[in-house]
From TrEMBL, chain A:
GO terms for biological process: DNA-templated transcription initiation. This is RNA polymerase sigma factor. PROSITE patterns: SIGMA70_ECF (PS01063). Keywords: DNA-binding, Sigma factor, Transcription, Transcription regulation. It comes from the Bacteria. It comes from Thalassotalea litorea. It holds the Pfam family Sigma70_r2. Residues 22-89 form the RNA polymerase sigma-70 region domain. GO terms for molecular function: DNA binding; sigma factor activity.
Automatic annotation (TrEMBL), chain B:
This is Uncharacterized protein. The keyword Membrane applies. Keywords: Membrane, Transmembrane, Transmembrane helix. It comes from Thalassotalea litorea. The chain crosses the membrane at residues 43-63, 83-101.
């Protein structure tokens, strides 16, 4: 379905096809950006929109429509890094900092919408990681890209991707253990 | 005690939670609005620069030799290659500007 609208957008460049492309990929794109910003939803959605505008501007450079999503995530990551540098935001948090942040919101975790609460929890966990670790963990575990694919997507050596993935996962597991010990 | 590793992986492997249909529509609306603004801005910039280029071409390019060559009825073999190139250059430039304008839509 997405490829149909991509082809149509490539041929016509009309706003209707563009809207369809946005509709097909918005959930994953927004989810990815929200993880990168560790749950700063408003800014993440801005990054997602900037990404889509860049897609429109540079669509002619995309030779292989099958690689559209990888290309989309690459652009989103670049926009995220640019915004992070410009606004000095979304820095790594220490375990204690994140813990106190989560404690402040513990009341909300008792609400009914568990799916959303869990997603927000994962987004907040991302605050423990640096930018590259957030991207690698999300692309690998949630979006299902292999390390090899991530390496070309983020233009990073394979070894670096693997070590970002491992370091990120270790940090998350350490934090989970710490939380369990705290709860016990 | 549950395994933190498997709990965490369960969280991470779960797909993103989609926004409500209303939020999704709003996102599409905003994206399309931005898209239209950008494409309009792009078209305006190309049109203005295209017109300036055309105007400059008309004002400064030696169009007279071109007209003379084409109106003289001379055989194409009698015209030297540099002269011919010079004569068709305005046509090529105008075509290029038109293509740019077309692509900027």
């Amino acid at each position: 379905m997405l490829s149909h609208w991509l082809q149509r957008f490539q041929k016509r460049g009309d706003s209707h096809s563009f809207a369809q492309v946005v509709s097909q990929c918005q959930s994953q794109l927004k989810g990815y950006c929200r993880r990168l910003t560790a749950g700063d939803i408003e800014q993440a959605d801005d990054i997602a929109q900037e990404t889509l505008i860049t897609v429109y501007q540079q669509f002619g450079r995309l030779n292989n429509l099958d690689a559209f999503k990888s290309w989309l995530y690459r652009i989103a990551f670049r926009h995220f890094l640019k915004m992070q540098q410009r606004e000095k935001r979304w820095q790594c948090l220490q375990e204690q900092e994140l813990e106190s942040l989560l404690l402040q919101q513990s009341d909300e975790r008792n609400s009914d919408n568990h799916e959303f609460i869990d997603e927000r929890y994962v987004m907040q966990l991302m605050a423990l990681l640096n930018s590259e670790e957030r991207a690698v963990i999300t692309l690998n575990h949630t979006l299902g890209y292999s390390h090899q694919q991530i390496s070309s997507l983020l233009e990073m050596p394979l070894g670096t991707v693997k070590s970002h993935g491992k370091r990120g996962k270790d940090k998350l597991i350490a934090f989970s253990l710490r939380q369990q010990r705290g709860a016990a | 005690m549950s395994q933190p590793d498997s709990d965490l992986m369960q969280y991470l492997h779960r797909d993103f939670v989609a926004d409500t249909p209303k939020q999704q529509q709003e996102f599409i609306r905003q994206s399309v609005q931005k898209y239209r603004q950008h494409s309009q801005k792009r078209a305006i910039v190309f049109t203005v620069f295209g017109l300036i280029a055309l105007l400059a071409l008309v004002m400064f390019f030696p169009i007279q030799p071109m007209v003379e060559i084409f109106s003289s009825g001379a055989n194409i073999e009698d015209i030297s290659l540099p002269t011919l190139t010079l004569a068709v250059l305005p046509v090529l430039l105008i075509s290029y500007v038109v293509v740019l304008l077309e692509n900027s839509r």
